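Justification of resources, computational component.

The compute hours requested in this renewal are based largely on the per-chain cost of generating structure records like the one below. Each record pairs the submitted sequence with a full structure-token output. That output is archived, and it is also reused by downstream analysis tasks.
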Amino acid sequence: MSVTFVWRYQRQLTNIHDLRKIMASTRTLCIKRIH
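The structure output for this chain reads:
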């Protein structure tokens, strides 16, 4: 049970990390388009 909880927690963290990456990439794309 605890192992599953840790796995879910780690997966959530990775998802948040991926979201940050996507946000950063989209932000750079928008800046490039504006300039």
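Residues 16 and 22 are 10 Å apart (CA to CA). Helices lie at 2-34.
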